[in-house]
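Schema walkthrough. Field components (list of strings):
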Amino acid sequence: MDTSAALKPENQSNRPRTQSTLEAVGITKDFASLRANDNIDFVIRKGEIHALLGENGAGKSTLVKILYGALQPTSGEIRWKREPVLIGSPGDARRLGIGMVFQHFSLFDALTVAENISLALEDLLPMAALQTKIKDVSAEYGLPLNPASVIADLSVGERQRVEIVRCLLQEPELIIMDEPTSVLTPQEAEDLFITLKRLAAEGVSVLYISHRLEEVRTICHHATILRHGKVVAECDPQQESAARLASLMVGAEIRELNASPMAEESAAIGLSIRDLSMPKPSPFAVDLHDISLDVRAGEIVGIAGIAGNGQDEIFAALSGERLASNPGSVVFNDKASGHLNVTARRESGVAFVPEERLGHGAVPGLSLSSNITLTRHSTGDRLVRAGVIFSGVAKMLGIRVSETFDVRKGGPDPEASALSGGNLQKFVVGREIDRKPNVLVVSQPTWGVDAGAATTIRQALVDLARSGSAVLMISQDLDEILEISDRVAVISKGHLSEPRAAGDVTREDIGLLMGGAGEDGEGEALAH
Amino acid sequence: MAFLSPVVAIGLTVAVGFVIFMVIGIDPLRGLYVYFIEPLTQVWSLQELLVKAAPIVLIAVGLSLCYLANNWNIGAEGQFTFGAIAGSALPILAPEFQNFATLPLMLIMGIAGGMVFAAIPALLKIRFGTNEILTSLMLVYVSLSLLDWMVRGPWRDPKGYGFPGSLEFSDAATMPILVEGSRMHLGLLLAVIVVLAGWFLLGRTITGFKISVLGQAPRAGAFAGFSRNRVILITFLISGGLAGLAGIGEVAGPIGKLDVVISPGYGFTAIIVAFLGRLNPLAILVAGFVLALTYIGGENAQIVLGLPAEIARVFQGMLLFFVLACDTFILYRVRFVRPRKLQTARVVDGHG
Amino acid sequence: MGTVEAIILTIVTASTPLLLAALGELVVERSGVINLGVEGMMIMGAVCGFGATFLTGSPIIGVIAAIGGGMAMAALFGLVTLLFVANQVATGLALTLLGLGLSGLIGDPFAGVAGIKIQPIDIPILTDLPFIGPIIFGHDPLVYLAVALTVAVSWFLFRSRGGLILRAVGDNHTSAHALGYSVMRVRFLAVLFGGGCAGLGGGYLSLVYTTQWLENMTAGRGWIALALVVFATWLPARLAIGALLFGAVGILQLHAQALGVSVPSQLLTSLPYLTTIVVLVLISGNRTLMRSNTPACLGQSFVPDR
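Field assembly_structure (string):
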């Protein structure tokens, strides 16, 4: 592990030389089988914009929940201005002077800005006075708001302003911001940075959680990097390259890459995505921009990325749950399919495994055999004839899938909700692979699954590809991507990078791409 | 386990009935006997029970399909009425048309009428997202007004001495009786057939599967390629058609003509039956008998004990209440949750 | 008093029970709960009000009993839907059935008995003014109470903190809970208020509108009140106007004969319901209008995670 990015000498860093506002000392948090935070020490200084970096699952959100009172640490201490404190609830945190701006806002759509803010405040101001205060504070910080606007009419960027102003009105000394720019346009993000710098100059500290490395390098004074629940490095982001930050985040270990032969250039293209663009279906979703990708028969292409960058949207566009305006933007086996619904796509030999197994990939309250029927009612298994379901066929398929994919279950045909995560996932994946599809699109194949089941599933994917199918795998697990993909692309804010052979790409490269390099033509060239 | 809650609910209803009789001043055991047991001891009242149960079961099977798919059709009473009106058009407008085809045609028109009426809230929900509870409910009153107008106006029996009501239907336009000397008519047979058909549809067909899946997990339903709009339409049409069939069945059966009042609230009672039967067609058959018993028992209590007719509704209302409460109580433990308070005082204030 | 004044007076009398019941339901729905049991609560109010007045001779006690009767039914509803988290639609229907049945039982001894009417007020000079006198100053006290209640509910919802919290709960109960507000308590209080208003509306029927007790005397007014709330897009001011309209339509068939108009009375009876459907379609098709006024959580049960 490269530790040369440790603290630079004080007189060269941009870090304010002030007192500490908040210190985390030895914070550890255990959940049943998982140590989410492992002996974390870090310090946030007064007037500092402090970045908290790390991949999904690194322990950032757990740490943040502890800081604002939603969780209690298993051991360790928090110090506020050098004194130990106990933050037992969000109310305690607020009272200390810690404000939190969430990634997903908790606002009331039908109410006005002033009403929303009033509901969150403990001191009751008469509405007229509050409205004046809102106008003043919001204008002062460059986040102008009309107190009488109804939230439903505001853009996402404006809604975030409400969340921030709500925070500011309580005169915090530390503001925690969780992925604040994920919903902002570049211009809105610029405005936000001006506000944050202003706050810092006034002595307010900001804990800035993000994976967008360029932004962190632009405005943060200091960064703490988490990996697997531990602090692995601290640095001055303005002195480091994005590549260095990326490698710290994702680790720079050399991995044993999958040496199997890749698909021949002449192999048929199973799935071709051509300039797929789609507007987002809801305010917190992501637009897709000109996505293009070919997946050949016999290969596994992995799409890596941090959650919330368009993975759900791509999956829905490929599965047919959302139809594309241009039929030619999604092509399965040389057949334009963008306008076809799910069933039609399945009928042409394509299979899908969504991210969520309960509620999306399977119905929790139905039996396994019924869940077989869920996706295979029209796929040539003669499950449904003249409108009648032949449950014997479904059961037989269910047994075959369970045996082939080692699904451990209580009885012969239990409800889906009775299976453990790993076993249900094996079932859901197996259900599709059992069809011998010529194209398989799978999202998060081993999320929340025990190691044994994960291995079974990954091996099944590899076997499927080697038998001639085209496999597209969307995953947030970088280890998994590098282990079994033949080629890798990265999705970030709805843009897909050029796919590269897995053997040619390093974790740093991927980390950089995840962090937004290469969007809009800006960003550093990939370092090798 | 799943049938524990209806049984408990019935038990609780009887228990509260016991108390009510006591409060009114009637010997509670006698009251319960007259209400629940006596009707089961005599042939004619048993037959009446079946006659009452038939339309309720017909409607309830249709409703169970709707509710399983989360479509809250509350307007069955209206679909019943409109079906009755539609089916009665033939014997009223063409009374000379009397042959083997008369009744089947009436039944078909009744079903169609119910379907058309149910299509309105369905299409409004699909196209505009309008709340189907209110639209289907409003239509109930529209249909009742329509019925009132027709039997007092255009369709009034000219030979009826000025009283409201249509002419009496001919034999060809009346439901055939199954057992000599009783009022048990074809409707009973239809009800049993519909129950079996409903059970088959839900358990064995792809349509029934779509209904179950979309009701339980809409996202999985979309993933399966099932169309939410199509299921809305199908469930409303089926339940409307069945309610319409029940309507024409009553009018062409026990009532014998189109009258001002053709239903003691069957469309609403059917809702209770659907819940009591836990949306399962076979259980609905049994639940239908239980509710029919509350009607007959109520009539019996009126005659024998001098109680007002409303006693039936008390038992019916209580039954539904208890079913609903027991369901949650037995399936999910009651949860008392305090909100995270705005004020908690455990902070050691630090001084910087 | 001329015909026109008489007609206006009867319109007000017909509208008042609708307004009262609908106001209560409006508050309930603003908190996110739909209570289809308005008809049952109204009829219980009617029978309790009539019975109490008859037994005690005091209309004031009758009014209190009417409110109490409605509230008692509402409490039952609240218990089952909020604590037991049962389906609101089905529970509301059960409430209606139970109310209709219970009231028939309770009211049996009072059938056919002559009741005590609440008299209209008589202010010395004002009531005697031509035309506007009786119309503005000549109603019974409950009418003025209904008007005052409309203003009070409007003020409460849009100018008080309690009303703000109530609207927040109806808009997003998850966020409200996260901020520390007790969703269950707010909704239960709203439900009780709704029951009291419905009971009062029912009491109006048996103490002013007709001074006797008849089974099913509410005749579907509870359902009309439900329709009214949607018609008024959950705004009290529009509710008052809607109540007048619906009340007018309700008794129009009587006056149609007096005015020499011959339209089938049943068409007039069905007008409120048809109008509601049209309004429902219009506002649900219009996303902005829907979003800005429909309580977003209407009908959804709230089960907080630990």
